[in-house]
Every structure is written in structure tokens, then in C-alpha cells.
């Protein structure tokens, strides 16, 4: 039996790689399942014996042949075949992975009988939102509570809060009297608390979890007065109600006649 192993490396922190095994001649191995985050790059790398000329990668959901040897056969430019000359490595790269990329991929060797290895790829979409958003008005001196919810299936690795693009680190939070409490789990909840809001606390706040887009909220700290937009909204509402009142009276009078 000639033995060939699938080898994996991580040339960049932007890539996600996984180990799989391949034997030649091949007995179909148990299907493997991998969870990966959306928008991250994925590398599937097969190492085949030099006795075989090339390796193909096939997407099972539509039986689309993605690569044959070093050539790529798809119009989706996120998929690329990578092969170094005089190397036994055959790599399928998926850049900027999307939810639709989830499914089974096969590394195949052109032999009789056919030999292949199936890999299940699960792309996870992590969603974050701030329940008080998108805009919060607070009177100066009042407490502020911002609550960020992160829903995912594997658990968030880390989470940071930003104010106007600047990370709220330990020193910054201590200096400004800000407390952050985070509970990690299937739904991670992080609470940012300001005991007494100051005008300087106004601005954009972002909750940035690992492997997800940030959630944002605009905080407006007011010095006693109400925001003009809210005042304008009430005036419009009152005007609309008053304007409709005569029409209702006239209509009722006409019906009575």
C-alpha cells in the first residue's frame, strides 16, 4: 500500500486550515465536519503520491468540478487551485467564505477504483446587535446602559467596545468611570455601564466580537434640553391631528343630513 497524507499549514493568520487524511489505495474515510466563520479564508490541502498526476476538488451539492490539477474550472474567482511545481500538495483555496459555501467537498484522485475524501464545511454567520440602538438620548448626569448581544453557535472568543473608533481598554474605562460586564455563551451578552454620563461621552459606540461585523449605536448626551429632532416630531404630530379634526366634523355633519 502506498500511503499519502493530507498536510496542512497556516501561512497567514487570515487562513483557516484543517487536517484530513488520505490513503492510496483509499478506503473511504468517515466524513469530517468543520465549523468556520463567514468572510474568513479556507484552505483545503491534499498531498497525493507523485505516482498520480493530479488531484481534483469537487463540490458535491451540484457536482461542480472546481479544480483539476492546477487549473480552476469555476467562474467564482474566490476559488483557486494552488500547486507548487515538483510538489505533492494540491490545495483548494476559498477566499472570503460565504454561507452558501457550506456543504461537502471532495478531494479526488483519478484512479481505478476511484479514491476520494469527503469534507463537510459549515460556514457560520455571527450576528451582533445593541438592543438600545441605533440612537440613544441621555440627559447629562444620568446612567447609561448599552447591551450588546452576539448570537453564534460556537462561542465568541473575544469582544471589545470602541468609542469613536478608539478601543475602550482597561485604563480608558477606569479613567472615564466605565464598567463592562460580559457573559460568554451560545448568546454572548456584553453590558457597558456609565454611572454618570458627560457631554464628552457622546458619540459612536461599537461592540466588536471576534468573527463578526461590529454593532453600532450613537449616544447623544444632552445638557438638559431635548433634541431638536424629537421636538420637531411632536410638533408635526400635533399639527396633523388638528388639521384632520375639521374634516371629521364636516363628514359627520353631512351624514346626519
Would you kindly provide a written description of the structure presented here, covering whatever features stand out?
Residues 11-110, 113-218 form the Ig-like domain. One of its GO terms (biological process) is synapse organization. It comes from Trichonephila clavata (Joro spider). By secondary structure, this protein is mostly beta strands. It contains two helices and 21 strands. The strands form five sheets. It has a six-stranded mixed β-sheet with strand order 4-12-11-6-7-8, with no helix packed on it. The protein has a five-stranded mixed β-sheet with strand order 14-21-20-16-17, with no helix packed on it. A four-stranded mixed β-sheet has the order 2-5-10-9, with no helix packed on it. A hairpin with a 2-residue loop joins β7 (64-68) and β8. The longest helix is centred in the C-terminal third of the chain and has 29 residues, at 228-256. The radius of gyration is 29 Å and the shape is rod-shaped. It starts with a strand and ends with a helix.
Overall mean confidence score, pLDDT: 75
User: From the helix content, strand content and strand pairing, which structural class follows?
Assistant: mainly beta
Number of strands: 21
Main sheet: strands, sense, barrel: 6 strands, mixed
What is the string of SSEs from the N terminus onward?
A: EEEEEEEEEEEEEEEEEHEEEEH
Spatial order of the strands in the main sheet? Answer: 4-12-11-6-7-8
- Distance from N terminus to C terminus (CA atoms, Å) equals 102 Å
- Alpha plus pi helix count: 2
Shape: rod-shaped
What are the low-pLDDT stretches, counting only 5+ consecutive residues below 50?
A: 1-31, 231-257
Radius of gyration: 29 Å
* Strand residue content: over 45%
| Percent helix range | 10-25%
Amino acid at each position: 500500500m502506498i500511503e499519502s497524507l493530507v498536510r496542512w499549514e497556516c501561512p497567514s493568520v487570515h487562513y483557516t486550515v484543517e487536517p484530513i487524511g488520505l490513503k492510496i489505495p483509499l478506503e473511504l474515510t468517515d466524513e469530517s465536519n468543520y465549523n468556520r466563520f463567514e468572510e474568513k479564508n479556507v484552505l483545503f490541502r491534499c498531498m497525493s503520491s507523485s505516482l498520480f498526476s493530479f488531484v481534483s476538488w469537487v463540490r458535491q451539492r451540484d457536482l461542480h468540478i472546481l479544480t483539476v490539477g492546477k487549473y480552476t474550472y469555476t467562474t467564482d474567482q474566490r476559488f483557486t487551485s494552488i500547486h507548487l511545481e515538483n510538489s505533492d500538495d494540491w490545495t483548494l483555496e476559498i477566499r472570503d467564505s460565504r454561507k452558501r459555501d457550506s456543504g461537502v467537498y471532495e478531494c479526488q484522485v483519478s484512479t481505478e477504483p476511484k479514491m476520494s475524501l469527503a469534507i463537510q464545511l459549515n460556514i457560520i454567520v455571527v450576528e451582533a446587535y445593541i438592543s438600545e440602538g441605533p440612537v440613544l438620548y441621555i440627559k447629562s448626569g444620568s446612567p447609561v446602559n448599552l447591551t450588546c448581544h452576539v448570537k453564534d453557535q460556537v462561542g465568541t472568543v473575544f469582544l471589545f467596545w470602541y468609542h469613536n473608533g478608539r478601543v475602550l481598554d482597561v485604563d480608558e474605562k477606569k479613567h472615564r468611570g466605565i464598567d463592562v460586564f460580559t457573559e460568554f455563551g451560545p448568546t454572548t451578552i456584553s453590558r457597558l455601564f456609565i454611572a454618570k454620563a458627560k457631554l464628552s461621552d457622546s458619540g459612536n459606540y461599537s461592540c466588536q466580537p471576534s468573527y463578526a461585523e461590529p454593532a453600532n449605536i450613537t449616544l447623544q448626551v444632552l445638557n438638559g434640553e431635548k433634541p431638536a429632532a424629537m421636538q420637531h416630531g411632536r410638533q408635526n404630530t400635533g399639527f396633523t391631528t388638528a388639521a384632520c379634526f375639521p374634516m371629521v366634523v364636516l363628514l359627520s355633519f353631512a351624514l346626519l343630513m
